[in-house]
């Protein structure tokens, strides 16, 4: 039995179907006559489901691309301590390093250490970038 791939066919009524076609050749051993039988199996519902699924996958890919393109690229981060969030908030409000150190009653070196840890956790390179990331992430 030979099975052919599925084909789209038109009926006399004009209706279109998808069918799997199989061909069976039987030869009579007595008189050597051949009998050729074509079997058609309607797979229209299956094809419609496949097409709908493919369309949904394409739409899903397009949706994901739009979502990825519109989402700001933000690096992963480690959790910030309350003091680190407070320091970022003070920088975001326009305070400078000496003012922040004085208001938190810490030395400038301790403030620099906090900034270093903040940059490590946020994967940023400077205080401005850290403040911008904190604002984007709604930490401040």
Note down, in words, how this protein is organized:
The chain has 140 residues and is α+β, with helices and mostly antiparallel strands. The chain has 2 domains: 2-70, PAS domain (Beta-Lactamase); 82-136, Winged helix-like DNA-binding domain superfamily/Winged helix DNA-binding domain (Arc Repressor Mutant, subunit A), CATH 1.10.10. Helices cover 51% and strands 19% of the residues. It has helices at 44-70, 82-92, 97-104, 108-122, 127-136; strands spanning 2-3, 7-10, 16-27, 34-42. Strands 1, 2, 3 and 4 form a 4-stranded antiparallel beta sheet that branches. Helix 2 (82-92) crosses helix 5 (127-136) and helix 4 crosses helix 5. The longest helix is centred in the middle third of the chain and has 27 residues, at 44-70. The radius of gyration is 35 Å and the shape is rod-shaped. The termini are far apart.
